[in-house]
Amino acid sequence: MFNGGMKTISLLTDPYMLNDEGLRFQSLGALVSVKSSTEQTSGAFNLFDVICPIGFATPLHIHYAEDVAVFVIEGALTFFWGDEKKRACNGSYFFQPHGTPHGFRVEGDAPVRILYITVPAGFDQFILECATSTRAFRATAAARHKIEILGPLPE
After folding, report:
1. Among residues 72, 64, 136, 53, which one has the least CA distance to residue 101?
2. Mean of per-residue pLDDT scores for the chain
3. What phi-psi label fits residue 48: left (phi over 0), alpha (psi between -120 and 50 degrees) or beta?
């Protein structure tokens, strides 16, 4: 039997296309464009086009509910995962399985543009909540979305 043991995921019944439209907002200093929301993919994945300003840094954190993939379109980043630190530039790709401590910092004198994918979906709801919330609320939202904030990135 073809694909006998493989799990299948059902996405939308209708295809869709975005040009430069879609939900766009500022979240923690980055410009986030949601290309695939939880609803659009029936919970399979999220896809974001993100522009991070010079000096932008995520905290060191762990996603327990989703895997994260990042593709660098423009600019340079330093990625941290586990005990490793790697520099990434145009064309670099990183995959962080759930349960892996990770984060990144924009390096250099130019903003960075990345494609950010989470599997399964749900991370879009977290970043929407963080866009207009206080630091205390973000900590509660992180816990609710099974994300552990470990603190600032190492130097």
Report:
1. 64
2. 88
3. beta
Q: Does residue 64 contact residue 146 with C-beta atoms inside 8 Å?
A: yes
pTM for the model: 0.85
Question: Which stretches within 24-66 are classed as H helix?
Answer: none
pLDDT at 3 over 50: no
According to CATH, the superfamily of the domain at 24-148 is Jelly Rolls (2.60.120.10)
Q: Within 13 Å and on the Cβ side, how many CA atoms surround 104?
A: 30
The two structure tokens encoding residue 121: 């979906």
Residue 99 has pLDDT above 80, yes or no: yes
Dihedral of alpha carbons 7, 11, 14, 16, sign: negative
Q: Write out the two tokens for 94.
A: 């990183």
